[in-house]
Design goal:
The complex is a heterodimer of chains A (328) and B (418). By secondary structure, chain A is α/β, with parallel strands linked by helices. Chain A is 32% helix and 27% strand. In chain B, strands 2-1-3-4 form a 4-stranded mixed beta sheet, sandwiched between helices. Classes of the chains: A alpha/beta (328), B alpha/beta (418).
Chain lengths: 328, 418
């Protein structure tokens, strides 16, 4: 699959004995939002750096709109790195103009962009402040704007929501949606699966330097064939023992193809095998108590993540770098 | 090009906006002004320190000789001595001693005759005897004593002149341009100035460059910039911006310096000892060579200092990585300095073609001697080639450094990102 959008074609990269990326592939059609998920040290950041040509890949290729990324002029892409960095002594407006000029747009265009994004990111009050005086959230806003001020066609965001409070997170999600609405293709990594689900059309799960799951969100969720049942019951009377151990006794304990995932007082989450009759389960539950909530859905991205990564049981080291003795 | 320009402009504004820049510029200015006022100040103090010498002439007719001797000394070398002839009661030693004690006189000199000796005996009585007092009086008394001694030896003043005639009666220089002592002196000053300026700039601004790069790496701002600029652009931009800032500082100093010397009436002619430094007599070609070799020298080292910053994660760690560059700079400085002492030597010729030393050594040779044009071109080509190589190597180290969270060695950096 090549041509439109971003196409990562089985790339690899190692640093000395450490194989950071072994076989990562993904396609992100132009205008799409793709979430890249995976454990720490899975190779997400290295992959992003390869897209941005900060480091070259050892094998495989990366193309944007059908052309190798190396052939695109500097300033074509936008990048918000995981580790935040700005010039601390500069004023916010000057810093933004500096990055805009570096990315190839004029100071005048930069000021127009600053005007445009100031409302969306609620940052009018900080434009004249020095970067070192900003809170973490505000610093992140400035860095986000510095990364996208030149309206790049492809934007790479590495952990854009880490360390943000709920209000700023909402603001950022709004900004990402806005960026997408303006036509940018967005690739971002995150450990917050609910954000990925809310923002993305597509998802790519990387672990141990390899793409394990990849595709449109809905298809990925349906792919396992399993379903998730969430139940809330009133007046279900467990024995004394199960008050201490909530999973010891639950309303669908003896049903075939029903596997308890999590349990809380009065509520349970089950994984259902494809052949299970959900109507029969509802009747069972009504006999066991008063049903307050009953929903059946495909597994969430978090479920897919947990199931896939747990199966792989990635041997990560303390600093999160995947280590393998032999190459694949 | 756009990236280099943007980074250079930011760097320039950033550096000239710092308190350290304002402070060093100001301190430099104060030192400069102080230096240019030193002759005036010394004059003032000398006038205050007038040496008043009372003279008692027991022989007769000797006081006039003393006075004439004092007046015959050229004004710029004349000691600040006032001679006062005392006679009668005033010439009584007890009275004179009292006058010396109360400070009316610095001291008194009595001239007495001795049997079998034509030369008078000069006796100095002073409250305090110090070197400048002795040397001032020696200057006045020596010619008089000499006259007596010549007469004793029956040597006429003409014969004395013959004895003192210089050994080299004719000096012919085969250089294309006739060099007089003054222009040799001016060349020497220019060569010193080049060595001094380059050394000061690189020692002062080299660490600013290293720390700036290290801070960018530490704050991770590098990663943001690498999306839109090549590492070599980032290094070159920083080097140019910082170079311009140092240039601005020198410009301020030079403008104020010229202004002050103009005000004090010493414009374009700065005299050191008895030799004048004629600013206006510096040929345009020399001025252009000065600028060219200054820039070549700056960029030769700036690349190394910038690359040193990529090896570390915090500015505090940079002193060790900078050490090799500082060491090379010192060796180059001494090589160039030895070239200044003997510009025709093999050491001077070889070092003017060595990268890192060439900018300083070649300029010295150009101003002090006649250098074949091909040697100048070769020196420039070698230096530009070295600068290009060092920036490329710096870019490699930059890329390797940006990905590393620890301090890396020069060798690891040069090997590139692993």
């Amino acid at each position: 699959m090549s041509g439109m959008g971003l196409n990562i074609n089985h790339v690899s990269r190692s640093f000395g004995a450490v194989k950071a990326v072994q076989d990562v592939w993904l396609t992100a059609p132009a205008g799409s939002v793709t979430g890249v998920i995976g454990p720490n040290g899975a190779g997400k950041t290295t992959t992003m750096r390869m897209i941005l040509r900060i480091i070259p890949c050892e094998s495989g290729s990366i193309t944007w709109l059908g052309k190798p990324v190396a052939d695109w002029p500097l300033g074509t892409f936008g990048y918000l790195p995981e580790e935040r960095g700005l010039y601390p002594k500069m004023r916010v407006r000057d810093e933004l103009i500096f990055f805009a000029r570096l990315h190839g747009i004029s100071a005048k265009e930069a000021l127009e962009q600053i005007d445009y994004w100031t409302d969306i990111l609620d940052m009018s009050a900080i434009l004249n402040m020095k970067v070192e005086e900003l809170s973490k959230g505000n610093g992140q806003k400035v860095q986000f704007l510095a990364a996208v001020i030149h309206r790049p066609a492809l934007v790479i965001l590495d952990e854009p929501f880490s360390g943000l409070d709920p209000v700023n997170t909402r603001l950022f999600m709004q900004a990402v949606k806005q960026l997408s609405a303006l036509g940018s293709t967005i690739l971002f990594s995150s450990h917050q699966m609910d954000y990925v689900e809310e923002l993305c059309d597509r998802v790519c799960l990387i672990a141990q330097g390899r793409t394990l799951v990849h595709g449109p969100i809905d298809e990925v969720r349906k792919a396992s064939g399993k379903q998730i049942l969430t139940v809330r019951l009133k007046e279900f009377a467990p024995s004394e023992r199960s008050v201490v151990d909530l999973s010891a006794e639950h309303p669908l304990q003896h049903e075939m193809g029903v596997k308890l995932q999590t349990a809380a007082p009065g509520s349970w989450r089950y994984e259902l095998a494809p052949e299970v009759d959900t109507n029969a389960l509802l009747q069972k539950l009504q006999q066991a108590g008063h049903v307050q909530h009953f929903s059946v859905d495909y597994p969430s991205i978090e479920d897919v993540y947990l199931a896939t990564v747990a199966t792989k049981n990635a041997p990560t080291t303390a600093n999160g770098v995947v280590k393998e003795a032999n190459s694949a | 090009m756009r990236a280099i320009q943007t980074i250079a402009a930011r760097e320039f504004r950033q550096v000239i906006g710092t308190r350290a820049f304002a402070l060093t510029t100001l301190v430099g200015l104060l030192v400069l002004i102080a230096i240019s006022f030193i002759p005036t100040a010394m004059n003032y103090f000398e006038r205050r320190d007038l040496i008043k010498i009372a003279v008692t002439d027991a022989i007769g007719g000797q006081y006039e000789l003393l006075e004439n001797s004092l007046l015959s000394i050229p004004e710029e070398n004349r000691p600040n001595v006032q001679l006062i002839e005392v006679v009668g009661e005033e010439s009584d030693p007890a009275v004179l001693e009292a006058r010396v004690q109360d400070g009316s006189y610095t001291g008194y000199v009595s001239l007495t005759a001795e049997p079998n000796r034509s030369e008078p005996v000069f006796t100095l009585v002073a409250k305090r005897v110090y070197p400048s007092l002795i040397s001032s009086l020696e200057l006045i008394l020596r010619p008089i004593a000499l006259q007596y001694r010549l007469a004793d030896l029956r040597i006429s003043p003409e014969e004395l002149n013959q004895l003192n005639a210089p050994t080299l009666t004719q000096v012919i220089s085969l250089a294309e341009e006739q060099q007089d002592m003054e222009s040799v002196f001016t060349s020497q000053i220019l060569a010193y100035l080049m060595l001094f300026l380059l050394y000061m700039t690189l020692i002062g601004y080299g660490s600013v460059l290293t720390n700036g790069v290290a801070a960018e790496k530490g704050s991770r701002v590098m990663e943001m910039m690498l999306v839109s600029a090549r590492p070599t652009d980032l290094l070159l931009g920083k080097m140019i911006g910082l170079g311009l800032a140092s240039f601005l500082q020198y410009l301020v100093w030079i403008t104020v310096g010229i202004g002050v010397t103009w005000l004090t009436g010493a414009f374009t002619s700065l005299s050191i000892g008895s030799l004048p430094f004629e600013l206006a007599s510096v040929p345009l070609s020399t001025a252009l060579y000065f600028l060219l070799f200054y820039l070549l020298g700056y960029f030769s080292y700036a690349g190394i200092f910038a690359a040193a910053g990529c090896l570390v994660n915090r500015p505090e760690e940079s002193s060790q990585t900078v050490m090799p560059a500082t060491f090379v700079l010192m060796v180059a400085f001494f090589l160039a300095y030895s070239g200044l002492m003997s510009p025709e030597s093999t050491v001077a010729r070889v070092s003017s073609l060595l990268p890192l030393v060439a900018p300083m050594a070649m300029f010295t040779r150009i101003v002090m001697t006649t250098v074949p044009w091909y040697e100048i071109v070769l020196s420039i080509v070698i230096t530009i080639g070295f600068i290009q190589l060092s920036i490329m190597a710096g870019g490699r180290i930059y890329r390797a450094g940006v990905l590393s969270a620890r301090r890396i060695s020069w060798m690891e950096g040069l090997r590139g990102s692993r």
